[in-house]
Amino acid sequence: MIKAKSSKVILGKLNTVPALVPVLHMSSPACINSPVCVDGVCYSVTAASVTTAHGVVMVEDVNNVNVDDLGEKIGSHPIFPEGADIVFVQASENGIKARHYRKGLGEKGYTFEAACVAAAAAMMQQERLVSRLNVEIGGDIFSAEYDRATGEVSLSEPTELKETLNK
To answer: Per the confidence metrics, is the pTM higher than 0.85?
Structure first.
């Protein structure tokens, strides 16, 4: 359930339990940095969801990723039995940069959930040892927060987020 508090959107609890994502993964309690091989190349994928299955792939340069092609291949890989949105993430000086593949739709700017899942995955993978970071996605910059104790994810951005919510 998404709730708005002034300029903050609380998306709810992040699911990393494989059966809840859903993702076929049995070697540990969560699917973090699991290898997924596509066209002879293996990618490390972290799976999570709030309402929609997402796979997060850390990359060196998010601008050099063929998001439509690779997103479709990873998102429809057997590891995701119901398919998944894929977010490609690059660590940056001020947080992370991300690009979003939406299942069946191709590259799209973002969803609030994709921004939060990308940030939480970067934090889980120890790319960023913080509980809040900036996410540049779809031409916008948000501040995403992941509370490891409760699992709650939220997103905020001054005024522009309010305008988006009111549309």
So the answer is: yes
